[in-house]
Amino acid sequence: FLSLGLTGAPKVFGSEKPYGKIFAQFSTYRGLGKGVSWASNLRLGAAAFRDVPLASRLFYAGGGTSIRGFAQDRVGPIDPVTGLPAGGRFVLLVNQELRVPLFWIFRGVVFYDAGNVYESFGDLTRLALRQGIGLGLRAQSPVGLVRFDCGFNPFRRPGESAVALFLSLGQAF
Predict the structure, then answer these.
(1) 147 has which bridge partners?
(2) Which of 120, 113, 54, 56 is nearest to 91 (CA)?
(3) What are 20-53's pLDDT values in tens digits?
(4) 17-22 LR contacts (CB < 8 Å, sep 24+)
(5) CB 149, CB 139: distance < 8 Å
């Protein structure tokens, strides 16, 4: 699976907050035999703003579909005053999953996630990747795949939780 998204609001079209944004995703899935598969995912994004960026146009990471060792949106810049995620202009995410059949409708997953959200290109070039590792259980149901993941943050910083739990529908990627 390969996708490339370009969005923007140029000043020439009357935007009061001009910006441009690009986001690319590449996922591959390989069968390893006897129902075992390897899933890989890479996501890259960059955003440019003429003025102060809108929070909704920034990138965020952490949570059940990005880096599962962290709470939702808790990877990347954090506002020092509010303690809330501040978002960033660049994002890099890498996910790896080994998916194994267990029994009946259940599959097990072992995963490794890495990435970060960066405020500047200089920050991105240093690649300070945050990591999450963990285990998951998948159940095929009439409404789709039900997913439970337990992610661990192996290199915690002060104030960060060691474990993050997620219950979701559908695959992480």
Answers:
(1) 138, 168
(2) 120
(3) 999 999 999 999 999 999 999 999 999 998 877 7
(4) 17/49, 17/50, 17/51, 17/54, 18/49, 18/50, 18/51, 19/47, 19/48, 19/49, 19/50, 19/53, 19/54, 19/57, 20/47, 20/48, 21/45, 21/46, 21/47, 21/48, 21/57, 22/46, 22/47
(5) no
| Alpha-carbon 114 to chain mean position | 8
Q: What is the pLDDT of residues 101-127, one digit of tens each?
A: 999 999 999 999 999 999 988 887 788
Structure tokens at 142: 């009439």
Take residue 15 and report the two structure tokens written for it. 């935007």
Q: Are strands 144-152 and 130-141 parallel, antiparallel or unpaired?
A: antiparallel
